[in-house]
């Protein structure tokens, strides 16, 4: 089936649905690795269109959701200091740490500011030379170039009151960790189109071959996702193991080479703890030694923290694809977007937030 050119053709979804039903002969389990795709699936009922023997699992595809409790606690510590202006994307402000979140620190008088880019935090640092400014550098590979741009500008202009709490995570090592789990159920992946727009997908080919798992780089429109599912099932049914690119209008196999070179200039792989997945070797990006003065953990002497999550929250199992939000006894009762127990309910891309917004009445009539 050829690629779809018109992504809002009302007949295309019906054609894809028929094609998926036609080629599906057995049960298959597919994981989408991006929270944006999860929301598109749940909002548009894509999973409900599929044959009953096709199961979609929601993976750890939201950097807000997978940021470790330890890093949240470190962010809270920094934001509570009177000499620090702490800058963060808005969706991190209500992610719970062990005892509180960043919004609580702000309510208690901490100078916590919501920004839309690390360059906004850089501007705040220039305007407040008597204060230290820390930016919470979360994200996947997608946000890494902007973080590096801010660091390079700080170095170029001699800005000494700017640093980052680094929390960038890498998608491929997380996929490998899921596939190597003895309880793994994933038979194929819908790979994150926005990540691959930066990194490309050539590096995924060895992962697909090692675990014998097909992968399709997929966009975010409902028809993107339906076609990605169709391409994935076609591989599974035919016994093929390839990395295919559905998102051809935005992704090339080699990725965005200038962005990759920028990342490599200032960042290097480091071990990183993931919420729900624990420590994954070489699954994050940290500052290279020549830029270490911009590392907030080093600058402010932060050490290891003893952390704890809500004992009734199952967000870790949800991030691993073992459970779905409606399997949690706290969903929609003790845990809501207004009073979240876990990051998957807070984040605008979290699976629990998607189910609460679009499926709550179906789960709790």
> What's the overall average pLDDT, rounded?
91
Portion of residues within helices: 40-55%
- What is the tally of beta strands? 11
Major beta sheet summary: 6 strands, mixed
Structural class: alpha/beta
Rg value: 21 Å
Q: Cα distance, first to last residue?
A: 40 Å
Instruction: Work out the strand percent.
Output: 15-25%
Put simply, the count of helices is: 17
Low-confidence stretches: none
* Strand order within the widest beta sheet: 4-3-5-6-11-10
Q: What overall form do the CA principal axes indicate?
A: globular
Order of helices and strands: HEHHEHHEHEHEHEHEHHEHEHEEHHHH
Explained architecture:
The chain has 365 residues and is α/β, with parallel strands linked by helices. The strands form 2 sheets. A 6-stranded mixed β-sheet has the order 4-3-5-6-11-10, with helices on both faces. The protein has a 5-stranded parallel β-sheet with strand order 2-1-7-8-9. β10 (267-274) and β11 form a beta hairpin. The model has no long low-confidence stretch (mean pLDDT 91). The protein has helices spanning 10-23, 35-44, 46-49, 63-66, 69-79, 102-107, 118-127, 144-157, 171-180, 193-199, 204-211, 222-238, 257-266, 296-299, 315-319, 343-346, 351-363; strands at residues 28-32, 54-58, 84-88, 112-114, 132-139, 162-169, 188-192, 215-218, 243-245, 267-274, 278-287.
